[in-house]
């Protein structure tokens, strides 16, 4: 005589009750699903805007005087690089508001751009 055992059906697409509860709790509290970054939000970082760059010899730099023009590797109207601690994070354009300069972000750098900026 053999016994028939009814095992529960396994469905990999169904979330566990705990996972469903956690998702609902996050949505109710409007918490982001990622890691808690609150401990690092007040750490100062160096934000810089790079119009362009060039390489020059010491002799060329010493020859600079008031009114000298240094040719950069960018064309007029190209976006500036927005860097945090030297790492490219975005590109933007210069804007003026109430007599002060600012930058309007027009593109957020992807992972490949960030990697290339380190090389």
Automatic annotation (TrEMBL):
<keyword id="KW-1003">Cell membrane</keyword>
<dbReference type="InterPro" id="IPR036429">
    <property type="entry name" value="SpoA-like_sf"/>
</dbReference>
<dbReference type="Pfam" id="PF01052">
    <property type="entry name" value="FliMN_C"/>
</dbReference>
<keyword id="KW-0969">Cilium</keyword>
<protein>
    <recommendedName>
        <fullName>Flagellar motor switch protein FliN</fullName>
    </recommendedName>
</protein>
<dbReference type="InterPro" id="IPR051469">
    <property type="entry name" value="FliN/MopA/SpaO"/>
</dbReference>
<comment type="function">
    <text>FliN is one of three proteins (FliG, FliN, FliM) that form the rotor-mounted switch complex (C ring), located at the base of the basal body. This complex interacts with the CheY and CheZ chemotaxis proteins, in addition to contacting components of the motor that determine the direction of flagellar rotation.</text>
</comment>
<keyword id="KW-0282">Flagellum</keyword>
<keyword id="KW-0283">Flagellar rotation</keyword>
<keyword id="KW-0145">Chemotaxis</keyword>
<feature type="region of interest" description="Disordered">
    <location>
        <begin position="1"/>
        <end position="35"/>
    </location>
</feature>
<keyword id="KW-0966">Cell projection</keyword>
<feature type="domain" description="Flagellar motor switch protein FliN-like C-terminal">
    <location>
        <begin position="40"/>
        <end position="108"/>
    </location>
</feature>
<dbReference type="InterPro" id="IPR001172">
    <property type="entry name" value="FliN_T3SS_HrcQb"/>
</dbReference>
<comment type="similarity">
    <text>Belongs to the FliN/MopA/SpaO family.</text>
</comment>
<feature type="compositionally biased region" description="Basic and acidic residues">
    <location>
        <begin position="18"/>
        <end position="30"/>
    </location>
</feature>
<keyword id="KW-0975">Bacterial flagellum</keyword>
<dbReference type="InterPro" id="IPR012826">
    <property type="entry name" value="FliN"/>
</dbReference>
<dbReference type="InterPro" id="IPR001543">
    <property type="entry name" value="FliN-like_C"/>
</dbReference>
<keyword id="KW-0472">Membrane</keyword>
């Amino acid at each position: 005589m053999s016994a028939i055992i009814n095992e529960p059906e396994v469905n990999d697409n169904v979330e566990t009750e705990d996972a469903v509860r956690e998702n609902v709790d996050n949505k109710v509290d409007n918490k982001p699903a990622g890691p808690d970054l609150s401990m690092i939000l007040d750490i100062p970082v160096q934000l810089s805007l790079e119009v362009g760059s060039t390489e020059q010899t010491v002799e060329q730099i010493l020859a600079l005087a008031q009114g000298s023009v240094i040719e950069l590797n960018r064309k007029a109207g190209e976006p500036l690089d927005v860097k945090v601690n030297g790492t490219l994070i975005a590109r933007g354009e210069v804007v003026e508001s109430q007599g002060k300069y600012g930058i309007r972000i027009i593109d957020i750098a992807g992972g490949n751009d960030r990697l290339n900026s380190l090389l």
